[in-house]
Amino acid sequence: MKVQQFHLDFERPLVELEERIRELRIKASAGDGHAAREIIELEAKLNAMRSEVYGNLSRWHRVQVARHPKRPYSLDYINKLATDFIELHGDRGFRDDPAVVGGFATFFGHKVMFVGQQKGRNTKENIQRNFGMMHPEGYRKALRLFRLAEKFRLPIVIFIDTPGAFPGIGAEERGQAEAIARNIFEMARISVPIIITIIGEGASGGALGIGVGDTVLMMENAWYSVISPEGCAAILWRDRAEAPKAAEALKLTAPDLLELGMIDRIIPEPVGGAHTDPDKAAELLGIELRRELERFATFDESIIAKRLDKYRNMGVFDSGG
Amino acid sequence: MEKNDKKIPWFKRYNKGPVDQPAREIPDGLWIKCESCGEIIYKKELSKNLWVCSICGHHFRIDGKDYIDILIDEGTFQEFDSNITSKDSLNFIDSKRYSERIKETVIKTGLNSAITTGIGTIDSIQVSCGFMEFRFIGGSMGSALGEKFTRAVERAIEMEIPLIVVSASGGARMQESILSLMQMAKTGTALTRLHNLGLPFVSILTHPTTAGVMASYASLGDVIISEPGALLGFAGPRVIQQTIGTELPEGFQSAEFVLEHGFIDKIVPRNRLKATVAGLLRYMYEPAVKTVT
Question: What pLDDT does B16 receive?
Fold first, then answer.
């Protein structure tokens, strides 16, 4: 098996150990009893090492895990968790933005409207999907689907995974700022439940543009911040290479955000990150999603006031003295 | 208005490189060189003309508080929540501690936050109003600003009066990370309650209004007005240039460009701002029914 593998720096010792185990397996299958015993030993060591490495991830490491090219994306979770998905396209104004996918979906017997940011798995798909960076028409497509959900009384399930809203000439010409502002405003008064999960990257307004809701969940290795670590480093340290420092300062991990009261719960990932076991990752996401859908199985207009109150109280400031 | 040391327009500097141009700064002099046409202008004249070049119409950047004099009837402005200030709840450190940065800025500007809010009258119509201060950490939006803006919205709701906000901002304040991102949600969602009551919000944009503020309340006015030549947009010109790798078209992200693309209603010169807002309010608001005095 010669598969080109992608590894993060801090995963190297784990990869070396895995490599060694693979070699021993070949020997063991050739009847080497010593090799078989060594495999058992090394596998125990590997598990312990994996727990240790992943138990001590720095914030910057988590950003790298969130960006792992093998990390499951929105449509991977849809494939694993939705029993039905009818994709819908277009903003009815300009074009269909493939950086965001959406449509009617059924999770655990609950009919919902699904909207999620979608990265590409390879270069070709990434060009098509613009690396998950939405244009204004993407935010307007999402808003159209939110309104459909409202009309048919369907809860909205949103997956966030974006390196940011796209900064380009067309995006400015078509009102990127207006599109995001409009979505924040309209999502505040949508009369059906909105359940949000940050599954990978949650960069700034690009994420918030589909990120106002009743419940905000976050996967263990996802990040969510006002700016990417690189963007922050470029401005405050005048050097993108200082991104690890910026990641620390920005306190952008799931545990950070839970402590700040900015998210409701953390969804655990398999040891080693969602990419090491996508099935398990989907299962863990499914448990939380199901819980939320059952909680919102019945709802009324009072959710709007609750949602507004929640955002009303966000922020930390001094009132002097 | 005696300060003129921070009035070099930003997006010109991007093109020419970030060089200090001390020759242009004559803080105590009688004459000032127009940043746009180069004309030497008598400072008193410039001040009388609301810091607009009488030759080319270039709008010099002025403080947020200066707009109180421009928009609000003399002697009617009453400030609220001036005690609210930023807090370094994340212990954020870049080149200096955020807590230090706040302290220094408060001392330097004499302001507690990047917005001044209160009530006052415009042509005898009572309004809840906010004036952003670019000189306070680039007019960036953190929790203090978000709270003051939200209270201004709530004051408008409580008194059943219009909301008028003059924006000038580089975006969300990075040093408050997720908390400042959530101020976009806090301010944007607060406006739905004002909207539901049929109360008007006039958003006035000045140079520059970008990123997190442009992508939240500044873009949510029932009517959006900009001063001429203001830089308006989501992403900064430098970021866009780096992303796409080509030169940006002439006038890109100027108020005139944004008007042409349909995202603001009007470009109004400074000396017409008050009359324009008053004129708009006559259509959007019935003070005879709603004025509380």
Answer: 39
Per-residue pLDDT reduced to its tens digit, A112-136 = 999 999 999 999 999 999 999 999 9
Among candidates B86, B90, B185 on the partner chain, residue whose Cβ is nearest the Cβ of A184: B185
A172, A235, A249 member nearest B234 (Cβ): A172
Which chain A residue's Cα is nearest to B210?
A177
Structure-token pair, residue B237: 């010109």
Q: How confident is the model at residue A321 (pLDDT cuts 50, 70, 90)?
A: low
Residue B177 makes CB contacts below 8 A (sequence gap 6+) with A225, A226, A249, A250, A251, A252, B90, B92
Cβ-Cβ contacts under 8 Å, A311 against chain B? 182, 185-186, 189-190
pLDDT at A164: 96
Query: Of A39, A56, A73, which residue sits at a domain end?
Result: A56
Please indicate, yes or no, whether residues B138 and B54 belong to a single structural domain of this protein: no
A:B CB pairs within 8 Å: 199
A interface mutation test: which of B176, B186, B234, B238 has the most A CBs within 10 A? B234
Name the average pLDDT for chain B.
90
Question: Residue A35 is encoded by which pair of tokens?
Answer: 């090799």
Give the pLDDT band (50/70/90) at residue A138.
very high
My answer on whether A32 and A130 are in the same domain is no
Rounded to two decimals, the ipTM of the complex is 0.94
Same domain as B159, residue B135: yes
The reply to whether B98 and B6 lie within a common domain is no
Q: Do A212 and B193 touch (CB under 8 A)?
A: no
Chain B nearest-CA residue for A307: B189
Are B231 and B207 in contact by the 8 Å Cβ rule? The answer is yes
Half-sphere exposure of A234 (CA within 13 A, CB side): 10
CB contact under 8 A, A184 and B184: yes
Domain span including residue A168: 63-312
Q: Dump strand ranges (E) for A164-214.
A: 194-203
Q: Which secondary structure element, helix H or strand E, spans residue A204, and what is its range?
A: helix A204-208
Q: Are residues A224 and A303 both part of a single domain? A: yes
Q: Contact at 8 Å (CB) between A128 and A135?
A: no
* Domains in chain A, number: 2
**Residues B89, B208 share a domain:** yes
Cα four-point dihedral sign B60, B66, B69, B72: positive
CA-based nearest distance B192→chain A, Å: 6
- Residue B54 belongs to what domain range? 1-60
Q: Based on the fold, state whether residues B150 and B29 are members of the same structural domain.
A: no
pLDDT at residue B243 in the model: 84
Given this model, what pLDDT does residue A30 score? Answer: 86
Cβ(A106)–Cβ(A83) below 8 Å: yes
Chain B CB contacts of A315 under 8 Å are 142-144, 146-147, 179, 182-183, 186
Top pLDDT among B243 and B63 is at B63
Domain stop point among B15, B34, B60: B60
- A232 closest CB neighbour out of B90, B174, B235: B174
Out of B84, B92, B185, whose CB is closest to A314? B185
A48 and A194 assigned to the same domain: no
B149: closest chain A residue by CA: A312
Q: With 60 as the cut, is the pLDDT of residue A239 above it?
A: yes
Query: Are residues A239 and A156 part of one domain?
Result: yes
What is the number of domains present in chain B? 2
Give how far A232 is from chain B: nearest CA, Å. Answer: 7
Residue A320: inside a domain: no
B12 — pLDDT class (breaks 50, 70, 90): very low
Residues A111 and A195 in one domain: yes
Give the Cα separation of B221 and B241 in Å (integer): 29
Which chain A residue lies closest to B180 (C-alpha atoms)?
A226
